[in-house]
Specification:
- The chain is mainly α.
- The chain folds into two domains: about 50 residues; about 140 residues, Tetracycline Repressor, domain 2.
- The protein has nine helices and no strands.
- Helix 5 packs antiparallel against helix 9 and helix 8 runs antiparallel to helix 9.
- The radius of gyration is 18 Å and the shape is elongated.
- The termini are far apart.
């Protein structure tokens, strides 16, 4: 029976992460290993992912979806802006917690010298993720204010992500506390009057405004 493309994509991502866990390194994963684990051909993988790095993008796509799912939870729109931002960013991070070591290895792979063709798209991806987080939290501002806020939120997101990858505290609570402090400072500076408000869901199949 032919699998639906999205189902196969998800299985391939799961198998690649499992392979990395088994071999102790994302770098050690080869696509023919993944194909063998699933009992499919390399052409099946190529039809879904043109290169190994695309699997990393798919892994982080899952985190983006987890953040949006947190924003769709009952009661989310009634939370304060600070609570909404913390909830969304934390959901993004914790969706990958079971495979935190592999996630860290994926990031290190992208940062290796000579991977400019990977690093430039990665910067674009960071911007896209932050825009989705901003949309999920229901921030309305535009123009220069929007640009300044996105810069600040990007710094918060990267600081929290960096701490999370290395956090040895129980349940990564040091990261959680850092995130809460940074977001509280962001709200105090950028939106001191915004306590509560709607966090509208983005229409299905659309992206955040540029």
């Amino acid at each position: 029976m032919t699998q639906a493309p999205e189902t196969l994509r998800e299985r391939i991502v799961d198998a690649a992460v499992a392979e990395a866990e088994a071999r102790g390194s994302w770098e050690a994963v080869r696509l023919h290993h993944v194909a063998g684990r699933l009992g499919i051909g390399l052409e099946d993988i190529r039809a879904c992912f043109p290169e190994k790095d695309a699997l990393i993008d798919a892994w982080f796509d899952r985190a983006d979806r987890a953040a949006l799912a947190a924003a769709a939870a009952p009661g989310f729109r009634e939370l304060s802006l600070r609570e909404r931002l913390v909830t969304v960013i934390w959901a993004w991070l914790e969706s990958m917690a079971v495979h935190r070591r592999v996630t860290r290895q994926m990031i290190l792979n992208k940062l290796e010298p000579g991977h400019i063709h990977i690093q430039v798209p990665a910067l674009i991806r960071i911007s896209r993720t932050v825009q989705w987080m901003r949309e999920a939290a229901g921030i309305e501002h535009a123009g220069l204010r929007r640009a300044v806020e996105e810069t600040a939120l990007t710094a918060i997101y990267l600081a929290a992500f960096g701490r999370w990858m290395l956090d040895g505290s129980p349940d990564r609570m040091e990261t959680r506390r850092l995130l809460e402090r940074l977001v509280a400072a962001f709200v105090a500076v950028h939106a001191p009057r915004e306590r509560r408000g709607p966090a509208p869901s983005a229409p299905a199949g659309t992206g955040p405004a540029g």
